[in-house]
Amino acid sequence: MPTIRIESLNKSFQVKKKQAGLGASLKGLFNPKYEEKLAVNNINFTVEQGELLAFLGPNGAGKSTTIKMLTGILHPSSGSAEVLGYSPWNQRKKLAFHIGSVFGQKSQLWYHLPPSDTFELMSRIYEIRRSDYLERRDHLVRSFELEPYFHIPVRKMSLGERMRCEIAVALLHRPKVVFLDEPTIGLDVVVKLRIRELIREMNREEGTTIFLTSHDAGDVEQLCERAIVINHGKIILDDKVTKLKKELLTHKKIRLLLAEEPHSFAINGATVIARDGLQYTLSVDTSLVPIESVLEQLIHQCRIHDVTIEDPPMEEIITHIYAQKNTSASMGVN
Ligand SMILES: Nc1ncnc2c1ncn2[C@@H]1O[C@H](COP(=O)(O)OP(=O)(O)OP(=O)(O)O)[C@@H](O)[C@H]1O
Predict the structure, then answer these.
(1) Residue 273: how many CB atoms within 10 A of its CB?
(2) Given 202, 229, 246, which residue is the final one in a domain?
(3) Residue 227 in domain
(4) Domain ABC transporter: where (predicted)?
(5) Residue 118 sits in which domain range?
(6) Do both 194 and 109 map to the same domain?
(7) Residue nearest to atom 28 of ligand 1 (CA)
(8) Is the CB of 68 inside a 6 Å radius of any atom of ligand 1?
(9) Which atom of ligand 1 is nearest to the CA of 15?
(10) How much is the ipTM here?
């Protein structure tokens, strides 16, 4: 039995219809007209236990609405879904004992209290036996390296430290499925890498199914095995990340700040796409040349003050998928 099963799932919202013109707007205040907004449009997929799935899409695509249905926060307009054999919206409380969720933009931790207090409270909410709780808490504190700030108020922590606590507390009741909504948003590169490592570890060691949404192509590339892309409420791609990497995650941007004007500047495999004084932006097609080779050439040709490597924004990748799909459709290819 799959861990998550979604069949013909739809969710529409009633939204106020915007009316053009001042008169119509005023009339609309007293006699509002409504229209249906289809946020999730007939989606189908399954997820197996232990899968690392990226659920992607641009803003407003329908990701959060789907997650809200899978966690039982929202009822669908039609269709069915099962998570670990439970109907999320009909058996929300039972399901809550087996799933965890982390929302990058919202905190589960008490802002003015130390994480240790939130852990205590959660252990009671999840009715965890005292000895099991203490063992689990110590294990999580060790593996997420929380000791230095486990007893200080959350408000005094950096975003990265807080995020580690958020993920750790979401794992307290040993959930079989974890929904991670933008877990690396706003974090610096080093902290992002560490968070990804921790997510990978929990998947490997405990077989946790990971359902991740992110606008960061790096999260998808380094963490997930499979990606589902949703746009305008419809699924437009469901494929292995290795395939996505070969076909779509091939362009990287290198931003350089040079210490001095270079004598020569010809980098095999990279194109200069912007320049402002000593700041250069290069585009690299990693399917043609590895990024390491470009960096090596750069080090030999110029004195570098600062360098960053960026993935293309998720929006760009999705636009590309969309364009490809439309081209195939117009050529009669499926
Ligand atoms: N409660 C609501 N009432 C009306 N419309 C809603 C409601 N919740 C979501 N929507 C609409 O449904 C669509 C899908 O929204 P959703 O939040 O699922 O997108 P998302 O993919 O999670 O976007 P983001 O990446 O910005 O979080 C959007 O057009 C949004 O405006």
Answers:
(1) 11
(2) 246
(3) yes
(4) 4-257
(5) 4-246
(6) yes
(7) 60
(8) no
(9) 4
(10) 0.97
